C-alpha cells in the first residue's frame, strides 16, 4: 500500500500556479482511474482510494502539508510514501526521482520531513528559478508562461505515468525510464 501525495495549495487562485504541479498530477491520476473519496476531517485533505493505494491532496496549504500526510500515514499505517512536488533547482519540464534528501528550502517538503521523516520517494518536477532569491515566493505562486503552458499537459501526463509505474516497479527502474533532463524549452 502506497500513499501518493501531490503538493500544492487549495483554492482556485492557486490552481494553475507552478507550486501546484503536484496537485495537477494527482488530478491526472484521478481522471484515469475509478477512485473512491475517503472523507475524514482529521486527514485535512482530499483523499482517494486508488486500487490498493491512496492519493492525497493536502488542503493545509503548502507550508503545513506534512500535517495532512502524517495523519493519513499514521491512520492507515502506511510504510511507503511518494511525494510529487515542484523543484526550483531543476529547469522547467524536467522530471527526476530520488529517495530522501534535504528539503532545499521547499516548505512543503520541510513540513513533510518533520511529520514523517525525509525517507520517502520524491517525484521532482522542475519549474525553473526566477534568478533572484527575493523573487522566489512570487514566482512559485505565478502562472506558467504561454510556452510552458503549452508543454504542461504532456509533462503532467508523463509524471502521472511515472507515478503509476512506481506502484509496480522500483524507483531506479522508473527513474531510468521516465527521467526528463532536457525539455523543448531548453
CATH class reads Alpha Beta
- Fourth-level CATH superfamily: Peptidyl-tRNA hydrolase
Low-confidence stretches: none
Would you report the number of β strands?
Answer: 7
When the domains are counted, the total is 1
Number of helical stretches of at least 4 residues: 6
Helix content: 25-40%
The CATH topology is Rossmann fold
Q: Strand fraction band? A: 15-25%
What strand order characterises the main sheet? 2-3-4-1-5-7-6
Tell me the Rg in angstroms.
15 Å
- What composes the largest sheet? 7 strands, mixed
Q: Please provide the ordered H/E string of secondary-structure elements.
A: EHEEEHEEHEHHH
What class do helices, strands and sheet pairing give? alpha/beta
- CATH architecture verdict: 3-Layer(aba) Sandwich
Kindly report how far apart the N and C termini lie: 37 Å
InterPro entries: Pept_tRNA_hydro (IPR001328), Pept_tRNA_hydro_CS (IPR018171), Pept_tRNA_hydro_sf (IPR036416)
Pfam families: Pept_tRNA_hydro
GO molecular function: peptidyl-tRNA hydrolase activity
Active site: 19 (proton acceptor)
Keywords:
186 residues; alpha/beta; Rossmann fold; 7-stranded mixed β-sheet; 7 strands; globular; Pept_tRNA_hydro_sf; tRNA-binding
Structural account:
This protein is an alpha/beta fold and 186 residues long. It has one domain: 3-Layer(aba) Sandwich (Rossmann fold). Helix content is 37%, strand content 21%. It has 6 helices and 7 strands, in the order βαβββαββαβααα. The chain has helices at residues 21-32, 65-76, 107-116, 136-140, 146-166, 171-178, and strands at residues 2-6, 36-38, 45-50, 53-58, 80-87, 95-99, 121-126. Strands 2-3-4-1-5-7-6 form a 7-stranded mixed sheet, with helices on both faces. Helix 1 (21-32) crosses helix 5 (146-166) and helix 2 (65-76) runs parallel beside helix 3 (107-116). The radius of gyration is 15 Å and the shape is globular. The N and C termini lie far apart (37 Å).
